[in-house]
From TrEMBL, chain B:
Name the UniProt record assigns to this protein: sn-glycerol-3-phosphate transport system permease protein UgpA
Species in which this protein is naturally found: Aquibaculum arenosum
Residues passing through the membrane, by range: 12-33, 75-96, 108-128, 156-178, 205-227, 266-287
Top-level taxon of origin: Bacteria
Pfam families: BPD_transp_1 (PF00528)
Similarity field: Belongs to the binding-protein-dependent transport system permease family.
From TrEMBL, chain C:
Domain of life of the source: Bacteria
Gene this protein is translated from: ugpE
Swiss-Prot/TrEMBL keywords: Cell inner membrane, Cell membrane, Membrane, Transmembrane, Transmembrane helix, Transport
Function, in words: Part of the ABC transporter complex UgpBAEC involved in sn-glycerol-3-phosphate (G3P) import. Probably responsible for the translocation of the substrate across the membrane.
Localization of this protein: Cell inner membrane; Cell membrane
Primary location: membrane
Membrane-traversing stretches: 7-31, 82-106, 113-131, 151-171, 192-213, 248-269
SUPFAM superfamilies (alphabetical): MetI-like (SSF161098)
Assembly mode: The complex is composed of two ATP-binding proteins (UgpC), two transmembrane proteins (UgpA and UgpE) and a solute-binding protein (UgpB).
Organism the protein comes from: Aquibaculum arenosum
Stated name of the protein: sn-glycerol-3-phosphate transport system permease protein UgpE
CDD domains: TM_PBP2
Length: 445, 293, 282
């Protein structure tokens, strides 16, 4: 008898506990969770967390979890591996060279325009900067992914060194001739040991070089129109430029400093007076430089007709993956709307140096006087919007581009180390690159 | 090699084997079989479209000059790591073998790199040899050599060799030291009485007697340089400049994990696996023979 | 000592000092870098002597962690690495002792077959089969768990192989004596074989602890929840940052913290480890 009582009692207790637990889970379920995998480490990671926290604090229905997943390649691979195992996040940040792979993955991605139409409220695609959004649109102009951190390469220069070499520190070199002259002056005056160095050589010296001079990187509008695209960066102009850079190494007018942004310390330590890299490096440059620096547009050859055209973007966008509930997609849509608001965009743009993705964020930054206080931060936007984009300067849509970049890196490094002439290396890079394009075409048709 | 005295029974030993067999089947055989099956497929990254292509992936590899180049790089790298690692460790072991003051202290310090993750070792050496801020790059430049592992394939190769050797010195040192201490002191004393100097004693007695240890370490070091140096290369050169430090296992990783070309990467793993089987067979034969003594 | 030649002793000390310098130098520089501020490390050559920010940098690291670049606090990452390393070491020793015992001391059908299944794991490095393994772990619902971090890495034959080598050298007389005393296989295993293997167990413990502690790619894939991040992941995350500069001073401080536990394990267990390692592997 007693025993039964005990059992009964404990059962009631257990029951109460279950009820309480259920209540708790229901309370937790009221907040729909959205997972966002990103590749922003260091200071940028802090900013990303602030955005997610800001969104979570702004409403009660959804909670965005921003999860850092390593560098760009690690993040993309992790998301793809997770997709294959049905554990994918809702949102994943993918760098621009992964764009073609993501676009080809029909059934795995949920195009942003569709998501916003089906789950969003008042969505107007025309608020996004055409030069940015166009890169990630399908042939009909529909946005497939949400631009997030877009940047374009710019030229950073050491004002102190310019001054020491008797150059005008307020005047950034405009053409390659200017840059060579400035480099020679700085080296001669002992202001720096080398003239210029570059980050992301393929992106800056081949891809953006082509766009800026309005010459094709590859056929079929740089791959926008067809998978049959073939590389054309073995043109005379390309050979001339890489050949020049090869020759400039001799007097240390140009010095190679590694892939990605590995060359940045060369600029920050005062070794090289000029440095070309992403406008998104602004924060890192200003944190690391103990000298005055200025920002200018990328140099061009002034005898080339149509130059300077406009530069193209790099960086990454947010892709939405298939396989989640409608309710969760509503959360994604709400988050994207928050992300596109002028305030969020303006502060992201101002804190990081990335391009604003909407016109209103650009205008807001102007109103706030940001560009007056931080001269040079609008150079990237001006350079992006220098002219209406042509087929050569809208962007790139090339499959297997991660590997192709490596091929270009490898071949350019052969030039810098003197193993190959610039002509040989560019021909080889085009040939190897085309093989990878054909492979992608085969795999995706 | 088998035990003469054993226990009977059938169910009990299988029960003992069960945990390891289960884990091996679920977490190794099954995924490895899938990886191998991939080698005859072509598949997009998300696994949405799959086509069977037979030996196409292999054919493509064997006609790819960069893949064949990677073989050559692996040979140079592996031979250098093995030779340098063994030579330095042997020298240190011979010096530490003679009973001198502070020997224990030296030994303790010398085994520290064993504890360092390859990825961390890579980061450390990358930091030291960074052409702009690295202290060693600065010193080398001071000696008149313009060190730049970002443009010079030779410099890059030297960097990954140094980092890999550094990581492996401890292991080699420990085995050489044990090998040296197993040599009967009476032999050496006898030679000394016959008037053989330290160098003569080393070349005519110590080194030949060490040859089993040396051979064992050679196999271990070759395997190490083939596979475990992945983390070092990943953290220092990422296989560059050009392809100058892309060893086979690194190529498997970049093609499969970074570029998501799963078919080609799987085909490379199959080739790599054949190499491991060969190396393991050599090691096995050798060890079996030793144990019978 | 065969003879006493002062120059030889001098040479020995000299060579060993050089060796030690070579070995310790990178770690010293890591320590030095962890005591400066970030800016002095990216502009100019790295200094050789410690700066004055030792307490500040380590306090920042331990209190604020590496928000943004690696998530959770450093002590949590250290704890996760510890759990992972210990699980791998203990788990592997347990299953390997059992299976090596079965393979060496019993005759049963499919013995060689089982043996080769286990040994096949030596043939394919983790990096090569990492994606399919990830799928298996994900399908079993083991992502973001200590089990997912450690169990798949236990599937390797190294320890089984080492124990097998050692068991083969154990004299048959011991087995016979045990049988004479009427001890069954399990008693023999528990009372004789395991105690005899103490040194080898210690050696394998050290090897596996370090193997587990030093994993990088695997934890990167299977964890998405900050509370399961490991310390080696944390270092890589601090060094490879897109469009931003690595905070070398904090990265190096994390490196120093990450080095401490495995170094302590190796140094403290030095004698057992060396003895076990050399005896089993030869």
């Amino acid at each position: 008898m007693r025993e039964t009582e005990m059992t009964f009692k404990s059962k009631t207790l257990a029951g109460a506990a279950v009820v309480a637990l259920l209540g708790m889970t229901q309370a937790a379920q009221a907040q729909v969770e959205v997972n966002w995998w990103h590749a922003m480490g260091g200071e940028l990671g802090d900013r990303v967390n602030e955005i997610a926290e800001g969104f979570n604090a702004s409403q009660d229905d959804y909670q965005v979890n921003a999860v850092y997943r390593g560098n760009y390649t690690e993040t993309m691979t992790a998301a793809i591996a997770a997709f294959r195992a049905r554990e994918q996040p809702h949102i994943v940040q993918v760098f621009e060279v992964g764009t073609a792979s993501m676009m080809a993955a029909e059934g795995a991605i949920y195009p942003v325009y569709q998501l916003m139409e089906e789950h969003g409220v008042d969505w107007d695609p025309s608020v996004y900067l055409a030069a940015v959004a166009g890169y990630y649109a399908d042939p009909n102009g529909n946005m497939l992914s949400m631009p997030f951190n877009s940047s374009t390469p710019v030229l950073y220069y050491n004002k102190d060194a310019f001054e020491a070499a008797g150059l005008d520190p307020e005047q950034a070199p405009e053409t390659w001739d200017d840059l060579v002259a400035a480099s020679e002056a700085m080296i001669e005056a002992g202001a720096t040991e080398c003239g210029f160095t570059t980050g992301w050589q393929s992106w800056v010296q081949i891809e953006n070089f082509s766009a800026l001079h309005n010459v094709p990187l590859s056929t079929h509008a740089n791959g926008f129109e067809s998978l049959e695209t073939e590389f054309q960066f073995n043109s005379d102009l390309h050979k001339r430029h890489i050949g020049n850079m090869e020759a400039w190494q001799e007097d240390r007018i140009f010095e190679y400093g590694g892939r990605r942004s590995d060359s940045r310390p060369k600029f920050l330590s005062g070794e090289c007076g000029v440095y070309m890299d992403s406008s998104g490096s602004y924060a890192a440059v200003s944190a690391g430089a103990d000298f005055e620096f200025g920002v200018g547009m990328l140099p061009y050859y002034d005898d080339v007709e149509g130059a300077p055209q406009n530069s193209i973007i790099g960086g990454a966008t947010l892709w939405v993956l298939e396989g989640h509930d409608a309710e969760e997609y509503e959360g994604v849509a709400a988050f994207f709307q928050y992300l596109s608001s002028p305030e969020v965009q303006a502060s992201w743009h101002q804190d990081t140096g990335y391009l604003p993705i909407t016109y209103s964020a650009y205008e807001l930054s102007q109103e706030q006087g940001f560009y007056d206080e931080n001269p040079g931060t609008d150079v990237s936007i001006k350079q992006m919007t220098l002219n209406d984009p042509t087929d050569n300067s809208r962007g790139l849509r090339l499959g297997n581009f991660v590997q192709i970049r490596d091929v270009i890196n490898e071949e350019l490094e052969e030039v810098w180390s003197g193993n190959k002439s610039s002509d040989e290396a560019l021909e080889a890079a085009v040939e190897r690159g085309n093989a990878l394009l054909r492979q992608f075409e085969e795999d995706n048709s | 090699m088998h035990k003469k005295v054993t226990f009977g029974g059938f169910g009990f030993p299988l029960l003992l084997l069960l945990p390891q067999l289960a884990i091996t089947l679920v977490f190794f055989i099954w995924p490895a079989a899938q990886a191998l099956y991939q080698s005859v497929l072509r598949q997009d990254a998300f696994g949405l479209r799959t086509t069977f292509v037979g030996l196409n992936n292999f054919a493509r590899l064997l006609s790819d000059s960069s893949y064949l180049g990677s073989f050559k790089v692996t040979m140079v790298f592996s031979a250098s790591v093995t030779l340098a690692g063994l030579a330095i460790a042997l020298l240190l072991a011979v010096m530490a073998d003679r009973t001198i003051k502070g020997a224990t202290g030296y030994k303790t310090l010398l085994i520290i790199p064993y504890a360092v993750a390859p990825a961390v070792a890579g980061v450390l050496w990358y930091f030291l040899f960074n052409p702009s801020i690295g202290i060693l790059a600065y010193l080398v430049r001071g000696m008149g050599y313009a060190w730049n592992h970002q443009t010079s394939g030779t410099d890059a190769m030297i960097l990954v060799i140094i980092a890999s050797v550094w990581k492996q010195i401890s292991y080699n040192f420990l085995f050489f030291l044990a090998g040296l201490q197993a040599i009967p002191k009476s032999l050496i004393e006898a030679a000394a009485i016959d008037g053989a100097g330290p160098w003569k004693r080393f070349t005519s007695i110590i080194f030949p007697l060490l040859s089993p240890t040396t051979f064992f370490l050679m196999v271990v070091n070759v395997v190490y340089s083939f596979f475990e140096t992945f983390g070092v290369i990943h953290a220092t050169t990422s296989g560059g400049p050009g392809q100058s430090t892309t060893i086979l296992v690194y190529k498997v990783f970049t093609d499969g994990f970074v570029a998501l070309n799963l078919g080609s990467s799987a085909a490379q793993s199959v080739i790599l696996m054949l190499i491991v089987i060969l190396l393991t067979a050599i090691q096995f034969r050798y060890i079996e023979r030793r144990v019978q003594y | 000592m065969v003879e006493n030649r002062p120059w030889l002793t001098f040479l020995q000390h000299f060579v060993l000092l050089c060796g030690v310098a070579l070995v310790v130098f990178p770690i010293w520089i890591a320590f030095v870098a962890s005591t400066h501020d970030g800016r002095s490390l990216v502009s100019g050559v790295i200094p050789l002597l410690p700066g004055d920010l030792f307490f500040e940098n380590y306090r920042t690291l331990l209190s604020e962690g590496m928000a943004g670049s690696g998530g959770g606090p450093v002590w949590l990452m250290l704890f996760n690495s510890l759990v992972m390393a210990l699980s791998i070491a203990v788990g592997k020793i347990a299953i390997s002792l059992l299976s090596a015992f079965a393979v060496v001391y019993f005759r049963f059908p499919f013995r060689m077959f089982c043996f080769w299944i286990i040994f096949a794991t030596l043939m394919l490095p983790v990096e090569v089969r990492i994606l399919p393994t990830f799928e298996v772990v994900a399908n079993l619902g083991m992502l973001n768990s200590y089990a997912g971090l450690s169990i798949p890495l236990i599937a390797s034959a190294t320890a089984t192989f080492l124990f097998r080598q050692f068991f083969l050298t154990v004299p048959d007389e011991l087995t016979e004596a045990a049988r004479m005393d009427g001890a069954g296989p399990f008693r023999f295993f528990k009372d004789i074989l395991v105690p005899l293997s103490r040194t080898n167990i210690a050696a394998i413990f050290v090897i596996m602890f370090i193997y587990g502690w030093n994993q990088y790619l695997w934890p990167l894939l299977v964890t998405t929840d900050e509370s399961f991040y490991t310390i080696v992941m944390g270092i890589q995350r601090m060094v490879t940052v897109a469009d931003s500069y690595p905070r070398w001073h904090l990265a190096m401080a994390t490196t120093v913290l990450a080095l401490l536990p495995p170094v302590i394990v190796v140094v403290v267990m030095q004698r057992l480890f060396v003895k076990g390692l050399v005896e089993t592997e030869k």
